[in-house]
Automatic annotation (TrEMBL):
Keywords: Lyase, Transferase
Superkingdom of the organism of origin: Bacteria
Keyword Transferase applies: yes
GO CC entries: cytoplasm
GO molecular function list: glutathione specific gamma-glutamylcyclotransferase activity; transferase activity
PANTHER family: CATION TRANSPORT PROTEIN CHAC-RELATED, GLUTATHIONE-SPECIFIC GAMMA-GLUTAMYLCYCLOTRANSFERASE 2
Enzyme Commission number(s) of this protein: 4.3.2.7
InterPro entries referenced in this protein's UniProt entry, alphabetically: ChaC, GGCT-like, GGCT-like_sf
Record-given protein name: glutathione-specific gamma-glutamylcyclotransferase
Gene3D superfamilies: Gamma-glutamyl cyclotransferase-like
Keyword Iron-sulfur (UniProt): no
Source organism per UniProt: Achromobacter insuavis
Entry's Gene Ontology BP terms: glutathione catabolic process
C-alpha cells in the first residue's frame, strides 16, 4: 500500500520565541518612541477585522514596496506543526492597500505587548516604521513585513496546492479557510480591492481540492 505524500511544510524547523525575545524585539521597535506620543499601526490581514486594540483613528492606506501574500506557514494560529496552514505576510515588491490605526500614546504600553505576542510569536516578521500614503497625507506606521530568512517563509505556490493546504489546516484560532475568507470579506467591506485574494476566497468557498500527489 502506497504511503500518503508528506504534508507540505511539516518538516521545517519550528520554534516559538521566548517572552524575553519578544520583549527585546519590542524594546528595539520602540527605542525612538517618546512616552505619550501617538503611534500608527498598519494592518493588511486579520488586523483589519480583529485589531484587538482601541484606536483613535482609522484610515485606508497604501504601503509601497511590499504586497499581501499567503507566504507564511502557520503552525499554531491556523495550523499545527504536523499540518501547517498559511497566513498572510507582506512580501517584497509591489504595493498593498490596507488600513492604518492611530493609537493613543497613553495606550502604547498597554496594547503593544499583546500585539507583540500576537504578531511576533515566532519572529517571522520584521517590525519596521514605514511611510504609508493616506488621503489625508502620509503617516509613519509600524508595519510587520515578512522576514524572508525565517524558515516559515514560503515563496508563491501553485494555486491548486495553496488551496489544498488552506482547506485542510486548522489551529487554535480556527480553520485556515475561515481566516482567508474572512480577510477577503473584510477587505471588500473596507472598500479595498484585491483581485488575487478575491479569486482565492471564491475558490475556497465553492470548490473542493486536494494536494497534487507528492506535493
Amino acid at each position: 500500500m502506497q504511503s500518503p505524500p508528506p504534508v507540505a511544510g511539516a518538516s521545517l524547523p519550528f520554534r516559538l520565541w521566548t517572552p524575553e525575545e519578544r520583549q527585546a524585539s519590542l524594546r528595539t521597535a520602540l527605542e525612538h518612541w517618546r512616552d505619550g506620543e501617538d503611534v500608527w499601526v498598519y494592518g493588511y490581514g486579520s488586523l483589519i477585522w480583529r485589531p484587538d486594540f482601541d484606536f483613535e483613528e482609522r484610515r485606508l492606506a497604501t504601503l509601497r514596496g511590499h504586497h499581501r501574500a499567503l507566504c507564511l506557514w502557520s503552525r499554531v494560529n491556523r495550523g499545527t506543526p504536523e499540518c501547517p496552514g498559511l497566513v498572510f505576510g507582506l512580501d517584497r515588491g509591489g504595493s498593498c492597500r490596507g488600513v492604518v490605526y492611530r493609537l493613543s500614546g497613553s495606550q502604547v504600553p498597554t496594547y503593544f505587548p499583546a500585539l507583540w505576542d500576537r504578531e511576533m510569536s515566532t519572529g517571522a516578521y520584521l517590525p519596521r516604521w514605514i511611510n504609508c500614503s493616506t488621503e489625508d497625507g502620509p503617516v509613519r506606521a509600524l508595519v510587520f513585513i515578512m522576514n524572508r530568512d525565517n524558515p516559515a517563509y514560503i515563496r508563491a505556490l501553485p494555486e491548486a496546492e495553496l488551496l489544498a493546504i488552506v482547506r485542510r489546516a486548522a489551529g487554535r484560532y480556527g480553520p485556515c479557510t475561515e481566516y482567508v475568507v474572512q480577510t477577503a470579506q473584510a477587505l471588500r467591506a473596507a472598500g479595498i480591492h484585491d483581485a488575487r485574494l478575491d479569486a482565492i476566497a471564491r475558490r475556497l468557498e465553492q470548490d473542493s481540492h486536494t494536494l497534487p500527489e507528492g506535493a
